[in-house]
Amino acid sequence: MKLSLLSLAASLLLLAASSHASPLHFLLKRENALVAAVFGSVSDGCKRSLYSLAMDAEVESCLHLHDFAKTLYSVNRASESIIEPVEQFLSKQVCKKDACSADAINAAQANIADDCKDDLANNDGFNIAYVLQYVLSRYNPAREALCLQDSTHQNMTCSAQQLDLIQTTFNSNVSQSSLLKFFQTEETPLDTMLQSINATNETRSAFCNNCTYAFATTFLPYAGDDVLLNSTRLDALRSNISSICGESFLDGKMPASVMNGTAKSPSKVRAPVPSENGTVSATTPASNGALSYGRVAAATLSSVGLVPLLLAAAVATVL
Fold first, then answer.
1. Could you give the CA distance from residue 188 to residue 43 in angstroms, rounded to a whole number?
2. Cα 36 to Cα 147: distance, rounded to the nearest angstrom
3. Nearest 5°: CA angle at 139, between 61 and 91?
4. Radius of gyration of the chain (CA)
5. Domain-by-domain residue ranges, the chain?
6. Global pTM?
7. In degrees, to the nearest 5, what angle opens at C-alpha 88 toward C-alphas 84 and 93?
8. pLDDT tens-digit series, residues 160-176
9. DSSP class of 259
10. Beta-carbon-side half-sphere exposure of residue 32 (alpha carbons within 13 Å)
11. H-state helical runs in the chain
């Protein structure tokens, strides 16, 4: 639905569920249907690998999944908005602390590529393993996009600002309950979201703001020709942005009011390189050969801390 950003975040959020001492455990018990919707399409072996990833000390030190869980656990009702917790998590954890090291991200990619091999090969366009792989391969631009801040909105992160816009525009809380509905849709999340945002001229024009502009500049060149965002959808996305918001939104510049809110520059993680037309070509992994960057092993992550929003932040809000 309109929540593709949050859906990604929720997906990762769920990964820390393997620890019964974690606030995630209690959070998940409250939304078992959401857990089933997110993990229902992947194998048991892949699930175990994703759980292990969430509990890895090095990964946890930079993705802060448990901090995110603690923040969300403060939300008492499944229908209550989670925008403020997301803003606090991004602004105080992900964006103000060190980025994940290249070794941590590349190791996570390798584990998913190996342990979720069949799930990736049989991808239906939107399962949790594939989403994580997709985002991990774009960790640098994803983290930067999630941490963009708009000075015209008291330096709120663009991620939270766009979620708030979605909430206001559709007059419905961005909540755990709405995430569940998002995952239960029969259409792919991206297609559903496109239909929702393009429903009216008012809805479409509402997203032509500085954050959408900045997201397009920061992340869109790395979006790639992929199952989640194939060439047809990517072309349609660029066309929509140009026709609805103006060609300037695709000029590769940053609006003056938007700045990078990260404490330090992201680590040098191997990532796809955008071609002249803005798509991402498959590249060969470094000498250790752990990953390939094509459709099947396009790496991922979800810093979910990156939360959420990554693909989402860049794609959902920009449509």
1. 20
2. 29
3. 55
4. 18
5. 4-318
6. 0.68
7. 155
8. 888 888 788 777 787 76
9. E
10. 1
11. 4-13, 23-30, 32-39, 44-55, 57-63, 65-73, 83-89, 102-115, 117-121, 128-136, 139-146, 158-169, 176-184, 189-197, 201-206, 210-218, 231-245, 311-315
